[in-house]
Design brief:
The complex is a heterodimer of chains A (154) and B (141). Chain A is mainly alpha-helical. Chain A folds into 2 domains: 75 residues, no CATH class; 74 residues, no CATH class. Chain A contains 8 helices and no strands. The radius of gyration of chain A is 18 Å and the shape is globular. By secondary structure, chain B is mainly α. Classes of the chains: A mainly alpha (154), B mainly alpha (141). Chains A and B meet through helix 1, helix 2, helix 4, helix 5 and helix 6 of A and helix 1, helix 2, helix 3, helix 4 and helix 5 of B.
């Protein structure tokens, strides 16, 4: 049952990406290209996607926060609060990659369905980057810290 | 703003939010795609099934759209496979180092008013805007 629920959630998430056109790199780059603001070609759709997502998630999270999950022992709400160097460096590296192509992890995985060779290259490289980061982190951290890092993933 | 599509953006964004709320309600997990996918490539992960199921659902959505006559076209990608591979590496490494991406920080984190997620979102969005400005207007022209 948990897997079925997860499958359903993935499908709804993917449907949101498809309907909002966030699976199109041109749509995302049209937002990120701020030179389009003076020239009139800027596409603010991504902000609307985020705003609508934040309203639903904000209200929904507030409502379910005290609840125990239906198919799990407890909710894994992120606990980290400090704005540290890994957070900022990681976000900067991610932003550079995002700007180069216009794909972040969700749309990249959903776009595998289009059988685009470029998307396959991107997702394989992304997986390699993720695995490399885990290996790199595992060399320096104690096992307890590794477990914590997994629980605080966004 | 000829390309602005506010209605489909609002509907799609609301569905993304709904998916995040339902995933927390059902499984107690944050719907962060980099966290869900990254866990699959980590040898210490012992909960692969729900992760695989979520990703299968994510890929099934464009397939379902195609079945009802709304096929998602192949996204426009840079001509150079090297650029694509470098970007993919940066996105994978960066999202794991920074503990999240557009969904985990940008939606779920900001919805919790997490200062970490707000800071991360400002940084990755700012970096992406600078890169697009450089590649589209300064270098690429």
């Amino acid at each position: 049952m948990p897997a079925l629920a997860s499958l359903l959630c993935g499908f709804i998430f993917g449907a949101g990406l498809v309907i909002s056109h966030m699976v199109q790199t041109t749509k995302v780059l049209g937002f990120l290209d701020v030179f389009g603001i003076p020239s009139g070609t800027w596409d603010p759709s991504l902000i609307v996607v985020m705003a609508a997502g934040l309203i639903v998630t904000g209200i929904g999270f507030a409502l379910i926060r005290p609840r125990t999950p239906i198919f799990a022992q407890r909710s894994l709400w992120p606990t980290a609060t400090d704005i540290d160097r890994p957070l900022l460096a990681g976000a900067a590296l991610f932003g550079i990659g995002w700007g180069l192509v216009g794909l972040c992890p969700g749309p990249a995985i959903a776009d595998l369905a289009t059988l685009s060779p470029g998307v396959f290259v991107f997702v394989i490289a992304m997986a390699a980057g993720m695995a490399a980061q885990d290996l790199w982190q595992a060399r320096g951290a104690r096992p307890s810290e590794q477990k914590l890092a997994t629980a605080t993933d966004g | 703003m000829a390309n602005f599509t506010p209605v489909s953006a609002a509907i799609g964004g609301a569905l993304i939010g709904l998916a995040a709320v339902l995933l927390m309600l059902f499984t107690g997990r944050i719907a962060g795609i980099s966290g869900i996918a990254g866990g699959l490539f980590n040898p210490r992960t012992d909960d692969r099934l729900w992760r695989l199921a979520f990703i299968a659902g994510l890929i099934a959505a464009p397939v379902a759209a195609a079945l009802v006559g709304h096929a998602v076209p192949m996204p426009q990608m840079p001509g150079s496979m090297i650029t694509i591979a470098v970007a993919g590496l940066l996105v994978g490494f960066g999202t794991r180092l920074g503990s999240g991406c557009t969904s985990g920080h940008g939606i779920c984190g900001i919805a919790r008013l997490s200062p970490r997620s707000i800071a991360a979102t400002v940084v990755f969005m700012g970096a992406a805007i600078v890169v697009v400005a450089l590649t589209h207007h300064v270098i690429g022209g």
